[in-house]
Every structure is written in structure tokens, then in C-alpha cells.
Amino acid sequence: MTTEFEREMQGIVQLVRSIYGSDFVPLHRPVFKGNEKQYLIDCIDSNFVSSVGAKVTEFEQQVAAFTGAAYATATVNGTAALHAALQLVGVQQGDEVISQAMTFVASCNAISYTGAIPVFIDVDRDTLGMSAMALRRFLDQHAELRGGQAFNKRTGRRLAACVPMHTFGIPCRIEEIVAICDHYGIVVVEDAAESLGSYVGTRHTGTFGRVASLSFNGNKVITTGGGGMIITNDAALATRAKHLTTTAKLPHAYEFVHDEIGYNYRLPNLNAALGCAQMECLPAFLASKADVAGRYVAYCDARGIAYARAPQGSTSNHWLNAIVWESLQQRDDFLKFSNDQGVMTRPVWRLMTELAMFKHCQHDGLENARWLQDRVVNIPSSVPDTALPDISATTP
Ligand SMILES: Cc1ncc(COP(=O)(O)O)c(C=O)c1O
Q: 81 alpha carbon to ligand 1 midpoint, in Å?
């Protein structure tokens, strides 16, 4: 006899197939139906295919305009953007940086590149992002203020920065997190890798902290193949962002003088060309993704299945849709059932505190992160092939 849960699993797979067709369905694949090919050809014809070129500046301007950030600096990927951002706000060797246990490993790798040590805070069950309540509890218990800066009473280390992440595009409670961090003199660096097109009220994620990083990896809402961006409203920080990520070279017509150890984190013009074309499609991508999410929500709501959604007052870009099953058994059964059927689904990342390189780091109780780890499954979330006309002929 078929149980109700088996019917729910079958129903979700059928729904996925009705949206994406009968072939193998990946979790998130890119869509190139705009001016990508034309801009790549333009780029090759111009000979500017590498780290200098007009498309880089154009892409930066498009992202700044879209997010409402005053400045945007393109980088070779999102991890590099986050590493540079942490360096730019002054994180140093031996500092501690607050992160969330449930995140993609890149957040914590970037912290480690600076020589700082991550400290892990729980997430909220609804937003799946850093819990403002858990952050306050941790700091009230463990932080002391000295000279306007927070120090961890247990380790004596400076708590230099906090890196909340907007998980799967769902905005975390960023306003509360910024207010708590302001009180403790802790700089907020938003990991907005997954949240291009996500808002709190009318304000774009990534514009609440001092600085934020975005990713344009192949699985993100828009892609440059590989790429990232540092966004900020701080003019001095933006100038330094460009400097530090482009080998710290002093401007000169022909001399090579570098005034500090910089990074070659430059986004090639070729990749930026892809980015410019993808930015033109972003509003259509977001509308299509909202439509897909609406269909998942209608299905889940009708059957009492928990679906992770943005809290009242904020808007998700619906990068990855997520179902929260009732148990580990249900999660595992659904993962096996759907993947066996050629519908790609996946569990949330293994908690950072369970990875060899971070398991010795300080953390709070992580009750929600552990609870979610056993239950969350991402389901296919691409822009459906059929959703968009070929717009390459219609845009300038
Ligand atoms: C939360 C988060 N942070 C950072 C990154 C790093 O971005 P990238 O893959 O472009 O280096 C990603 C995505 O890959 C991510 O999902």
C-alpha cells in the first residue's frame, strides 16, 4: 500500500517533471538566451579578453545599479571577493570572525585565508540564515568591550567581523544582526553569494553591512562562468577593493610599482561580458524563479509540507527552493527516491563544525542547524527552458 509520504514524494517528482520535462533535471543550471554569445564575440574581436576591458567596468556598474550599492568591484570568484572583503575591513591573523555553522564551506575558507578563526553561531529555522537571537546570546555571554572593540572572554581574541549568509537567497535577519554587531563594534561582512535579487523591504541584501560579496558561479542566479563582486557604499573601501584585488599596482603608464602584497583576483573581460548579458536577463530570471517557487509553495501548502520561505517583509530570489521534511528518514528516503528518478535533489551542506578543519572552533548549541541538517532538501530551481523567449535579437 502506498503511504501518504510516498504519495508526497511522487507528487513532488511529478511536479518537477511538469516544470522541467522528462530528461535528467539538474538542481540549477544556467540559461544563455540573451546577448551572451554576441558580447563574447565582441570581446574576442576587441582583443581585450583578459583582466582589463570595458566589460568589467560595465558589469560592475550594472551590479551596483541593480543592488543599489554605491560601488562594485568584480573579482574572479565569490570566495576571492569574500577574502578580500574581510581583509579590507581589517581582519587580521589571530582574530576571530563570527560565521554560521550552516553555510557553504567557502564562507569559512575565506575567513581562514586571513589567518582568522571562525566562531560558529546557530541559524534560524525559518530563514536558514544566521540567527540574530543566537548571535546576541553568544555575544552577551562571551564578548567584552575594550576600547570600542569586542574581545572573546574565553580566548582573549578580538572578534573582528561577522559574516551572516543569506541562505539559498532567503534574507537572514540582517537588520537585527547589524544592530547587534554595531553595539559590539563588530564589522558586518555579508556573504550575499546566493542572494542577488533578494531584498529586505526594498533594500537589496548585501547593502546592510559595511561590505558584501556576491558569486556568479555557474549554479547561481546569474553566471559569469566563474566570478564574484565586492559591493559597498564606502568610497574609500571601494577604492582599496580595486587596488587590493588588482595586484596593488600604482597607476602609471608603464612603470610597475606595487605598494603592498595584492592579489590577482581580477575578473577577466570575457567573463564580465557574460555577466553583462546575464544582468540584462536578471529581471526575467527572477520573475520565472518566483513563478516556479509559487508552484512548489502551492503544492507544499496544500499537503502540509514545510517549504522554506522568506519571512514577512523580505523577498527571496528563490535561488534554491528547499523543503524541510519531518525527519532524517524522510529526508533520506526523498533524496534516494528523487535522485533515482533522475530528479536532482540534495541535502544541505554538512555543518562546518563537523568538518575536520573547523571542528575545534568555538560554537553555540547549534540546535536549529542540527535540526535543519537532518531535514532540508533542495529541489530543482533553474529557470525553466520554456520560460524565456530568446531575447538576443531584441536587446541592444
Ligand atoms: C554562501 C556562499 N559563499 C561563498 C561562495 C563562493 O562563491 P564562488 O564559488 O564564486 O567562489 C558560494 C558559492 O559558491 C556560496 O554559496
A: 9
